[in-house]
Amino acid sequence: MRLLALDDLPRIPEVFSLALSPDGSRLAFVVETADETANRTRRRLVLLELDADGRPIGGARTIARGGSGLGQPRWSPDGGRLAFVDSRGGPAQLRTWDAETGERRVLTDHPAAVGSPAWSPDGERLVVIADAAQRLDTPIPITETDPRRRVLRVHGHRHKLEGRGWLEVDGPRRHLWLVDATTGVLTQLTDGDAEVEAPAWSPDGASIAFMADRSAERDRNFGGEAIHAVDVASRAVRRFTAEGVTCANPAWSPDGRRIAYLRAESPIQVDGHLERLWVADVASGEERCWTHGLDRPIGFRPGGYRTPTAPAWTPDGSALLQIAADGGRAHLVRISQGRVEALTDGAEVVAA
Which of 43, 103, 114, 166 would disulfide-bridge 130, Cβ 3.0–4.6 Å? Predict the structure, then answer.
């Protein structure tokens, strides 16, 4: 028996970003490998055809190849198109692949990278996150890339973020953009000094929920996001959850009357407060904790990392599925009001 050596690690491919088509007949995912000679990673967007029992039919088919900017596959509601992002030739743009014809299109032409695509329920639009001006209908600020000529104007405590860089005064912020699925026309939906994350369409396609810290104290928070929703037609923003806490990963109930999310009772993510599952009533704004009294974090993996997977409602809207951490383990749980039922057990970590 040969033991695993350090030199073997770059030869092990990583599989992630699994996306199952709505009818379960196709599975798209990303395969990443290390190119030791070029000292870089390479990715493939791969497709598998599945039978009625979920077993592969034939071999894997490569849809696209690229570098670290390739990924985030998302199926359209009818399963006819697969959207993904790719950074070949410049900033990452939204692309689509037609499942019937095999046609690939570059859908967006944004001056900065786009990400986090999500299809509208009718399949006619998508929402993405990309750099935007801090005021609606204003040109995106141009960032000087030459360090010899660049002048930085910053203020506040959180003026530079890992993976983001400098947050300049009047500089671009990451906001929601609406994308026409046919023409690729982009429309900025949100604005302001705060950046947004985790867009989620309402079932009727009229609103998009997201997480952002738009409070007056956001400069002093490391976390502090609240759940908001933007009306797609008017671009008006409504806040659903309290400020001064940290909320994340919104998920609409099937009837659109409630929004589930993770919540910790502090605007600081690393101070030891447990994240619990909360549900807000859309009409009244009333918030309720569904895991009150549970001494385990909901939506977290071991090591203190929040899963990017939003809570998943059951079709009848009576319960939600999410991950619960327990020491060095994490399990899939079913949550209804006042009850948490473990669906997996053993020495394992459910990650998404």
Answer: 114
Percent of the chain predicted with pLDDT > 70: 100
Alpha carbon 11 to its chain's center: 28
Both tokens assigned to 201: 């369409």
Q: Are 287 and 280 in contact (CB under 8 A)?
A: yes
CA 74/CA 117 separation, integer angstroms? 7
Q: What was the pLDDT predicted at 162?
A: 81
pLDDT score of 320 = 98
CA angle centred on 335, ends 333 and 337, rounded to 5°: 160
Contact 134, 192 (CB under 8 A): yes
Please check the confidence at residue 202 and state whether its pLDDT lies above 90.
yes
Are the beta carbons of 332 and 326 closer than 8 angstroms? Answer: no
**Residue 168's beta-bridge partner residues?**
none
Distance CA 277, CA 93 (A): 34
User: How many Cα neighbours within 13 Å face the side chain of 112?
Assistant: 21
Q: Are 125 and 181 in contact (CB under 8 A)?
A: yes
pTM check: above 0.90: yes
Q: How far is CA 340 from CA 98, 174, 251, in A?
A: 41, 35, 18
3-state secondary structure 269-330: CCCCCCEEEEEEECCCCCEEECCCCCCCCECEECCCEECCCCCEECCCCCCEEEEEEECCEE
